[in-house]
Write a structure and sequence with these properties.
By secondary structure, the protein is an alpha/beta fold. It has an 8-stranded mixed sheet with strand order 3-2-1-4-5-6-7-8, sandwiched between helices. It folds into 2 domains: 4-184, Rossmann fold (3-Layer(aba) Sandwich), CATH 3.40.50.720; 195-329, N-(1-d-carboxylethyl)-l-norvaline Dehydrogenase, domain 2. 49% of the residues are buried. It is built from 15 helices and 8 strands.
């Protein structure tokens, strides 16, 4: 059955997810605040800043008017960087209050809010009253936009406390190359999605320095242990971290040049200063900001996260990457299960 869906955020991931929905037969309005980007999408079906060589479905309609995008929507998908997530949520709240709409809210944002350390679903829950929404669903998993665009086989998770909403999202997105599983562990899905970006920066830095497979495997494995440790401290199911939104997302992000977090780490490993890396990337590097939030959160909750702490020192205290690696490898030896 065809649904009316609004997608808020026309970056690489938001626009590709919108394209998947159009391919699946749904009526989609893709919102961007950039009128030039909207014109390019509507007139040429391209989005060159984010996916230079990809042509979108002609049925995908873009708009710079959020009210127009959500006017008839039964589902609103939000794919906005964490730094702007609350502002967009508040703008959406005002529109839903005015129109009386009550859509299912879905987000595919991977990060933690600075200062508050809140997950995107928490921001949605406190920003938009229950009278103006149904379930809140997290769409997460190992999925680079570039790969989904070319129909590479992809599996992700729709996590929600509301099973009906999770199953709706599952059916909206699923097709012969994009498979969606359901999960009720929202906390685990969001912590896995956010924290894997930290490890991805580290993995890129290792390769930038010339390290090989053993080093990458060690970092991914011990990084996953840290992700699980912090997530479980906040009530996540530990089994979630061996699933798609845990180890799955971590592996694809920490091993692929399609990951801007990996690319940022690689450049840091080669000696570029952080600000230069940020300026040249031209897109948000979520892991840089998540590192700060996760480090501070771990300090507050007394959770051991030595890899996160090392990457924090590199990003925010100017520590040399080689020095950080040496400090990690020189720590007192301990049990793997700690």
């Amino acid at each position: 059955m065809s649904e009316q869906i609004a997608v808020l955020g026309a970056g690489s991931w938001g626009s590709v997810l919108a394209n998947v929905l159009v391919e699946n037969g749904h009526a989609v309005r893709l919102w961007s605040r950039n009128p030039d980007q909207v014109a390019e999408l509507n007139d040429h079906h391209t989005n060159h800043k984010y996916l230079a060589d990809f042509t979108y479905q002609p049925g995908l309609v873009a708009t710079s008017d959020m009210k127009e995008a959500v006017a008839a929507a039964t589902v609103v998908l939000i794919v906005i960087p964490t730094g702007g997530f609350r502002a967009v949520s508040e703008q959406l709240r005002a529109i839903l209050a005015e129109t009386g709409r009550q859509p299912v809210l879905v987000h595919a944002t991977k990060g933690l809010e600075q200062e508050s350390y809140k997950r995107p679903s928490e921001i949605l829950a406190e920003t938009i009253p229950e009278a103006n929404r149904k379930g809140i669903v997290v769409l997460s998993g190992p999925s680079h936009a570039e790969s989904v665009a070319i129909h590479d086989m992809t599996a992700v998770t729709a996590a929600s406390a509301d099973q009906e909403s999770a199953e709706l999202v599952q059916h909206l997105f699923s097709n012969d190359y994009f498979r969606v599983y359901t999960n009720d562990d929202v906390i685990g899905a969001e912590f896995g999605a956010a924290l894997k970006n930290i490890v991805s920066i580290g993995a890129g830095a290792l390769q930038g320095l010339g390290y090989h497979d053993n080093a990458r495997a060690a970092l991914i494995t011990r990084g996953l242990a840290e992700i699980r440790r912090l997530g479980v401290a906040f009530g996540a199911n530990p089994l979630t971290f061996i699933g798609l939104s845990g180890v799955g997302d971590l592996v694809v992000t920490a091993t692929s040049k399609n990951s801007r977090n990996w690319r940022a780490g690689y450049q840091l490993g080669q000696g570029k200063p952080l600000q230069q890396v940020i300026d040249e990337m031209g897109m948000v590097i979520e892991g840089v900001y998540t590192t700060k939030a996760a480090y501070e959160l771990a300090q507050k909750r007394h959770v051991k996260m030595p890899i996160t702490a090392a990457i924090y020192r590199v990003l925010y205290e100017g520590e040399d990457v080689k020095t950080a690696i040496k400090a990690l490898m020189s720590r007192e030896v301990t049990s793997e299960v700690e």
